[in-house]
Predict the structure.
Amino acid sequence: MRKLKNEELDRLLPDQFRNVGKQPVVLVLDDVRSATNVGSAFRTSDAFLIEKIYLCGITAQPPHREINKTALGAQHTVEWTHTEEISDCISQLKKEGFQIVAVEQADESTSLIDFKIEKDSKYAFVFGNEVFGVNDAVVQKADTVLEIPQYGTKHSLNISVSIGVVLWDFLAKKEKANS
């Protein structure tokens, strides 16, 4: 076994990325304080062919030095938009037929282990502020509140880790449903 060289990875060029079919998924980042977390969201979204990122409230926007540092150019390939009010963003996504999935710890949350995807549905995964989580009003409007099981002493994961876990799980389940 040997490690592959970059030229062997068959990566898309930016123009190819823009024109390739995307996953029926968008990310909504609400009041995310850390620009490096935003950059990581871009990079992960690029890796998994996510349709778009919605940056809401105080969430940093490109161009930004800290976003650039972690996004490694994905801020130029993944489509994004900024909305001041997350409620406007959620309302618009609902009108467009997206299932709103707040990633949060809540009394009636669904464990990621038990989360079932519907084959032809579109999903908007909402991630909130690093300290306060997803806004309560968004939790109330969500179709599903999704919780990542955690077994140790900490009660949260870094938002960039949570995004990776949720997107990987979604794509694995989607692939299984399509086979």
Remarks:
- The first strand starts at residue 23 and ends at 30.
- The mean pLDDT is 96.
- The helical segments are 14-19, 35-47, 65-71, 74-77, 86-95, 136-141, 159-178.
